[in-house]
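Reviewer comment 2.1 asked that we show a complete input and output for one of the modelled complexes. We chose the thiamine diphosphate case, as it is the one discussed in the main text.
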Amino acid sequence: MTVHSPEPTTVATPASARERLLRYAFMKLTRDFDSRFEALLLTGRVSKWYSEVGNEATTIPAGLALGAGDALCTLHRDLGAILAVYLDPARAFPGFGFGEPDGRRPEPGVLLHRLACQLLGKGEGFSQGVERSFHYGYLAPEHGILHVGMISHLGSMIPVAAGCAFAFRQSGSDRVAINFIGEGGTSTGDFHEGLNMAAVWKLPLILVIENNRYAFSTPARLQYAAARLSDRGSGYGVAAETVDGNDPDAMAEALRRAIERARAGEGPTLLEAMLGRMRGHSEGDDSLKVVPAEELAGYRAGDPVPAYARRLEEEGVMDGALRERLEQRIAEMVEAAISRAIDAPPPPDEVALRPVFAPAPPEREIREAPAVIAKRPAGETTYVDAIHQALLEEMERDESVVLMGQDIGVFEGAFRTTRGLHARWPERVLDTPIAESGTIGIAIGAALLGYRPVVEMQFADFISCGFNQLVNVAAKLYYRWQVPCPIVVRLPSGGGVGAGPFHSQNDEGWFAQTAGIKVVCPATVADALGLLKAAIRDPNPVMVFEHKFLYRRIKSALPEGDAEARIGEARVMRPGRHLTLIGYGASTWTCLEAAEELARSGVEAEVVDLRTLVPYDEETVLASVKRTGRALVVHEAPLTLGFGAEVAARLADAAFPWLDAPIRRVAYPDRPVPYAKNLEKMLLPDKAKVLAAAREVLAF
Ligand SMILES: Cc1ncc(C[n+]2csc(CCOP(=O)(O)OP(=O)(O)O)c2C)c(N)n1
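Response of the prediction step:
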């Protein structure tokens, strides 16, 4: 359903006088707060400021429309929505008839102070100064506040907001999520993936486009060709409306309809709020010059804050005396919060080193969880079946585990790792559209609200389409907000199966370099089970690089008991004293084969399986190399900046006095993986290449 009239709708409001007065109170509060920060920019107290001037009539009704426990997902011009969600009106504006204090939200002065500190980069801000302006999250379910801030990358938060909506739907609540995007941000891929998935899964998401007709300097006509952005609604199969975003009453009505639909399980709504650009992209730049003078004058003449005040006065909702009293109260609140924040101390230096990983829950907690270990298959099990077993056991153990991926439902996955799981838990094993970014974003949103999503990449190569969600949203979350983000991404990776350049890659290095993501690479059947179980229990983003060459080529009996392996521990697979061969994934087996061969000529090579790249078990590797004095690192990922480069650098640094020979690497040459088997074989690290390199190292 696309609902729009030829011109943006301005509907007669059914709202009460108090509701409308409250809208004005928040509009004026927002404007004053914003203006004060514009001034602070000029004095250099704040380094950047994105003005909300002109967006208040859109954002405030959105904030006010949410109830306790609904999710608010904001961008850089949504201060009004934040204030409307954070502040208890009865306490923020006492004596104005806004009801009784709700008893759940903190004192408004405290929140305003923290907000001002946040924006000034002070230690008492929500993120203690580690990130700028509105990029913080304030997830305080105890206060009924679920505020998910932004990352800079526009569009990225739409799937995350859809993920919050997913969590609500999945848990059977009628909560909703509201998310904002500028008209410029609607051109991103995540806009499409997020909205499409929200539509397909009928998620309770309201996506509000703040169409101020310019993105930085780019006018809307260069951003999209549709007459209206709400026209896209029918393309996605979602309800959509274009609304006069300068009219808070019209916005409130449109939001009411959207939220009603969402709470009733009718899926998302796209609301396009028509606004006018009244300030530059950020304060202090000269981008406002792109708005023609006459057009700008029109926007200024229609400035929604004074316009709404006039309207309320004309309609008898507010007289001069009431307005003065209200505005006086607002001025005092803003002044008190900002002047106190200006004097607040900067964050202590050690905040820069705060953890990037959430601590693991105490061991006891896991052991005492309803540990339903499914009957493990007796006898020899393949690596791929061990993965299936881990998924089965963790799904049984913890109902917050949900699986998402392409073709993993009825079809049971390209490699059948989800065999039987959809049949058993149709609500928890979800086929996704072909949308890696959308899926990982949804997983992140769901993880923030207590789920443990496990996302399957059909092939590891496709992770490049979800890269941003992982490295910028998931990886940075704990450092930014100190809120856990327990998602697992499973990646069937690696070559040796004649699959060519786009189905053979070893991309673990891209992620190992990003702080905040754990990277595990199981080599054995036991680790395929144990490391995946550990990954699912870990409170952090974990990427599990499964090696598909091993899927059906190695077999062994599964361990008994809980079988969780420890992330961050390497293992000596074969002891030796002349040389250390260091591998992971399929390369561990190449190292073992080479060690076997070397043994025939009397060389005792020690083989270390890294198992986990991040966190890296420096101790085990170092201890081995100190014993043997020689090191050779083997991996299938490209040589340049492959993980072996890191291992070699660390060894050069820490083991130098013990080394009897240069550290060598056997890795994939810096080129794509060719399709023809003979070509691939030529380039893949194998026993012969490892032996040749080992003999060179031993010859020193
Ligand atoms: C993915 C991405 N590309 C580029 C930018 C740089 N950038 C920041 S804001 C902006 C313009 C945004 O315009 P719009 O979405 O219309 O929102 P507005 O600022 O007008 O409210 C750009 C290009 C970004 N933040 N994210």
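The chain has a mean pLDDT of 95. We note this here for comparison with the apo prediction described in Section 3.2.
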